[in-house]
Amino acid sequence: MFFLTTRAMSSLHLEPVGTVADANGKPLVDFLHSPTQKVLCARWYGNLTGREVTHVAQEYLRAQTTLYCPLLLNDKSQATGDWNEAMDWLEYEWLPQAMEGGLRAIAYVFSPDMHNQLASLTFFERVRKHIPIQLFYDVPAAWQWLRIQPQPLHRPPHTANPT
């Protein structure tokens, strides 16, 4: 089990779900899960491209089907790169599927990399028309915002029940 050590996140215990690697076997993202808080955390690594972001987003959809987490903590604080070429797919393909699977809010932690920040701002502008999303510079602030977001009372009927 993975524990985040800040006071604001003391109630968030994250269990590893899995790691998605790039074509060379280097980690792109670690997925972590808090079953009690219904949070899926995506912790990104490396220099990201649109292709890699799309690959990870597809893996997120698979994880969401099994885990059902209405809240996403998207942590790009350890990532770099320009992934703008994935933007249309993310807005018009991924986001509707994620929302259909139960996604209700995204806390988004910025990368210190300027190219990644520009892509993140574009993503934010596109997504905020459809779902609550907020940008942060650190994980504790993101978690503090995420934990006050409303969650649905019931799981969408088409998602699988966790085993």
From TrEMBL:
It comes from the Bacteria. This is STAS/SEC14 domain-containing protein.
